[in-house]
Design goal:
Belongs to the GASA family. Pfam families: GASA. This protein has helices at about 1-25, 35-40, 45-60, 75-80. It is mostly helical and about 90 residues long. The chain has a domain at about 30-90.
Length: about 90
């Protein structure tokens, strides 16, 4: 019984550590936000609002998903931030 508890605790610790590693993998410095957001917003016709919200999200989350659209699962904080209406805040 004690061996099962120890194995369960070690498994949980491993899962928590791996989640931190995955989320930390995409961490940026605040100075990296503008170039990343420029690329992220390069394919939209609404560049100004895209840049505004992307930089706001990047400053909070220190992460910008790769590509010009989608891939938000790579930045959990960026993906979870919603408007009051429940729509995604980050482009």
């Amino acid at each position: 019984m004690a061996a099962r508890k120890a194995l369960l605790i070690l498994s949980l610790l491993f899962l928590v550590a791996s989640f931190d590693i995955v989320e930390g993998y995409n961490r940026l410095r605040p100075g990296d936000c503008k170039p990343r957001c420029s690329y992220r917003c390069s394919a939209t016709s609404h560049r100004k609002p895209c840049m505004f919200f992307c930089q706001k999200c990047c400053a909070k989350c220190l992460c910008v998903p790769p590509g010009t659209y989608g891939n938000k699962q790579t930045c959990p904080c960026y993906n979870r931030w919603k408007t009051q209406q429940g729509t995604p805040k980050c482009p």
